[in-house]
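Worked Example 4.2. Read the sequence first, then its structure tokens.
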Amino acid sequence: MHGAPLPEETLRALGACLAETLVAAHTVGVTHAGLSPTAVLLAPDGPRVTCFGAARAAAPDGTPRAGLPGLEPGSLAPEQATGGRPRPPGDVYALGAVLAYAATGHTVPDRQELPPLLRSVVPTCLARDPAARPRAADVLSALLPAGASATTGAPTVVDAAARSFPLPGRVIAAIARQSAEILAADLPLPSGS
């Protein structure tokens, strides 16, 4: 967040990119099972999604996952927290939590805290009942600008974000600072080198 919520243009691009990523995964039968604010890396050429399978790695199906290290409780779908098998509706819940965090600084906001763009999307994603949540494709459609559509064979939302991902200056400065710190780190060499 680096000081403030992301602007609406960035929220739209972020949400569309993440939804498109989930659509692609769900289409081939893959569930992310670990999407959270810390699993999304922001870069000037678009977001990167990490931590695939975090819920599965933390505990086998049937084992309650609430409170386990590495899993963010605000992003973990209720059915996964109690041990349910990770499924696409759980990813959509996590997508709603990520967008809520990017817009407000926490994963379960009051509806009025959300910018108008997300007031209908995030609450439906965060529905406790998995059957009441939209599909990732529905979230993608809701976040695309008016007149745009997600069609196969056309350039994707991710392609468009790679050309121009609208990060605020404070976030770009934070990325540059973190990159400089990593490049300047004095790492120990393995013995014998």
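Now turn to a second chain, presented in exactly the same format:
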Amino acid sequence: MPSPIVLQCSKALADRQLTVAFVESATAGRLSAEFSMCPESGSILKGGLVCYDASLKENILHVPKEMLRRFTPESAEVTRELADRLQTFIPADLHIAVTGLTCPGGSETPEKPVGTMFIHLFTRGKSVAVREVFSGSPEEIVLQCIDRTAVLILAEVPVISEQL
């Protein structure tokens, strides 16, 4: 069962006849799955891509190899690029990318510890970036990130609605 904030977000999107598409790395499809279990999923969720491995970011979404090397696959810059490139693959009102570090073994540093998650949203020419550091198990980090993504969408939905 999706969290209350995801259910609220789904309803808000449906009430405004808005659609969403996701490209996921660290959440590995869980974000799309949570939204797919909402009663409004058929009218709001366009789909998603899972690009967990950096090679998929490069080979499917054509993120430049140099960008991945320079910033790391789990970075604000790459997350923005993923959200931007998703727009050419899946038509939707909101395009959202998520990357991050849910467990050791990635690009973690003292400045970017495990639990650091990046979210980027594109909608109608607007771009919004979020960086959060969560704690807990990998699943707890993913679920916190999903809820934070829903909060981000809820913050943007009224703005989008005014542009309609």
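Notes for the reader: Strands lie at 20-24, 45-50, 94-100, 116-123, 126-133. The chain has a mean pLDDT of 95.
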